[in-house]
Amino acid sequence: MTDCIVGIDIGGTCTDCVVIDGEGRIGLGKAFTTPPGFFEGIRGALSMSAAALGTSVADVLARTSLFLHSTTVAENAVVDGALAPAGLLTTRGFEDTLFATRGGYGRWSGLTDDEKRNPIETDKPRPLVDRRLIRGLDERIDARGKVHKAVDPGEIDAALQALRAEGATAIGVCLLWSFVNPANEETVLRHVRQLWPGVFVTASHEIAPMLGEYERTSTVALNVSLGPVVSTYLSKLEQWLRDSGCRGALLIMQAHGGLASAAAAAARPVSLLESGPVGGLIGSKTLGERIGEPNIIAADMGGTTFKVGTVQEGLLDYQRESMVLRYHYALPKLDVVSLGLAGGSIVSVDAATGEPRLGPRSAGAYPGPICYDHGGTDPTLTDIDAVLGYLNGAFFLDGTAALDVKSAREAFTSKVARPLGMDAETAAAAIYRFTNSRIYDLLHKTTVQRGLDPRRFALFSTGGTAGMHLPAVGRRLGVRAIVVPHSASVHGAFGIATSDVVHDELVTQPMHAPADVREVNAIFARVSGRLIEQLRSAGFSEDQMALARSIDMRYRRQVHLLTVPVTQTPSAAPAPLSDADLAQVMESFGTYYRRRYGPESAFGDSGVELVTFRVRATGRVAKPDLAPAPLGPADAARAILERRRMFIEDAGWLDEVPGYDFRALQPGNAVPGPAVIWTPITTVVVQAAQAAVIDGHRNIVIRSAEKRAP
Question: Which of 91, 149, 210, 302 could be 508's S-S partner, Cβ–Cβ 3.0 to 4.6 Å?
Fold first, then answer.
């Protein structure tokens, strides 16, 4: 076995693994997540991947050149309130920035629709830094970068001593207009590092050099509060890998879709927030390029959440403004929308109304769904799928874990079906339809309500639970095809294993149009030079590098910005912009603005501002060629394992639905609906009006029966 790439995605319920060797062979693995250390779950998933390649965990790790990892440890720390006590040094008079948030917007942003309708029961989020851990420094720089008052070293010393005495274990620095001139912040940084060696410290000009005092301060506060937590986790992971015989480089997935070294991720942990769903979206884009699907609705439904993002004409969508648990932070991330609905979602009946409730509470892996036999007592969506006849214990986690369907049915009957006045089958089918309706609503909002025609898109169904629900939902939505990737429930790990190293940097330097193209080129050149040097120091050659440039723009006297790409092919040395190029960017801004806000919304007479200049540098990681296999005959009858009673949404309860063993299916085989396909890592339910085909990459491609095609 040659050198290999390992991708590990740790979710709330399961840990997923993909191993790709130098010959292009892929080993898929899945195991239950094992907090708080997580390493037992990693080893379990690795063991399954290694076995699929006919080798051992020790051999895989010894031959690993890249160990790529996505973790939710940062997000979990925010959600669980397990943040480090951080101190904040800011400009005197602005100590309450985190408490003011963004005024009225900060009061309701991040709330659900129900919470917004009950304002008396809600409030602003609790500030990330306690007021007693905030100190103001008597310094001032103006909007043009002129230093009116330098910071006093003695004042820094006194503030640090006070913060240490109050229990701070990390320090954030956010001074006014530091993104224009960081001189005072740099002075503060030097003194913090001299007086408190080893403390985790972040300054705003390092991580968020942009307009927006609250957003910069909140980003710094999040970063320093997460720093000790994430650094400790990554240090333990590196030690575990060394002890396990792995000498490959450890790279960590970031929320914007690129990998970073463990050291870079530890210094910038806020970039890991909400990075969990990113691997699946990257994997869908990569797979779409290989099978000719440029427009994708990428949906992931695992054990804890349902997540969806889109790929349009081969391009990913980004959110410029990010939020986690109502806290804003000023780093871009891939646009992924989440819903607390998945296999582990607990099903109950409201005692007051008698209505069924589904989620958002999740049973996780432990105690988990009742059918897992891990001690769970509350019925979950996975238990309902078992009652509906979909699950096969011989395939669950490749047959390594037993399923207790009998206990799941009994608990569901007593706790849900009887209170609803139904038998188990009727109640399970009703909740299945209700679940699919909620998924449909989210997909409709993600596409139709954003002006996207789902008939132009393929729906990629990933995650362990998705294959039992998305074929039915996709039929309702009218997508051109439903694709269940070969990597299916470990698709996030596949995306991580096929990702590249990405560094982002920005410069905020507002200027009015028409801008001086020489000034714009000078800004891009400075930033590009720094990013190229970072990639070069990481071992990338110029032919492995690509730079993409964009500009944040707005009409004058407006607040919000639109990011407009500079339309040139990414390369390591993009040509300087010409006046014509800049004019094209201006024209694109008007087009983007009208597309987003309406055809009559633009007001060009007000003038345009170019505010922030962004550069994204990508270091392409070498990947093995995954060539498709030739297609064989359509007949798949030999792969039928059994026939059983199950619920099919477009046909009702049926007694003789064929169940196919995916391991016996070959590229080119066709599976007419209704049917169920069992794989070692997921289950796929084909509706009666659909037909599935196994393509050359062993993906399951489902279309309406009349549109059946390989």
Answer: 210
Residue 1 lies in a domain: no
The boundaries of the domain holding residue 415 are 298-456
More confident site: 369 or 1: 369
Low-confidence winner among 4-8, 112-116, 207-211, 512-516 (lowest mean pLDDT) = 112-116
Residue 437 and residue 341 in contact, taking contact as beta carbons nearer than 8 Å:
no
CB 503 within 8 A of CB 617: yes
Same domain, 448 and 552: no
**Residue 223 covered by a domain:** yes
What is the layout of strands, in order, in the sheet containing 545-555?
26-32, 14-21, 4-10, 64-70, 249-253, 259-261, 501-512, 608-619, 545-555, 562-565
* Pairing of β 134-137 and β 86-91: parallel
Domain shared by 367 and 432, yes or no: yes
Gap between the Cα atoms of 419 and 426, Å rounded: 13
Q: What is the DSSP letter of 131?
A: G
Torsion of the alpha carbons at 40, 41, 43 and 44, rounded to the nearest 10: 120
Domain count, the chain: 4
Residue ending a domain, among 565, 587, 619, is 619
Helix axes 579-597, 517-537, angle to 10 degrees: 90
**284-316 per-position pLDDT tens digit:** 999 999 999 999 999 999 888 899 999 999 988
Helix and strand numbers, DSSP H then E, in the chain = 19, 35
Question: Is 690 a domain residue?
Answer: yes
Beta bridge partners of 301: 306
Domain end position, chosen among 619, 651, 667: 619
Q: d(Cα 556, Cα 566) in Å, to the nearest integer?
A: 20
Residue 167 has pLDDT above 50, yes or no: yes
- Of 618, 697, 691, 611, nearest in space to 658 by CA: 691
Residue 68 lies in a domain: no
Q: Check: pTM over 0.90? Answer yes or no.
A: no
686 and 566, same domain (yes or no): no
Residue 654 sits in the same domain as residue 591:
no
Provide CB contacts within 8 A for 419, sequence distance 6+: 349, 354
3-state secondary structure of 31: strand
Cα separation, 468 vs 676, whole angstroms: 9
Question: Measured in Å, how far apart are the chain's first and last C-alpha atoms?
Answer: 32
The tokens for 312 are: 């349009």
- Give the domain CATH number at 557: 3.30.1490
Angstrom distance (rounded) from CA 676 to CA 684: 6
CA geometry: angle at 654 spanning 651 and 660, to 5°? 100
CB atoms within 10 A of CB 434: 13
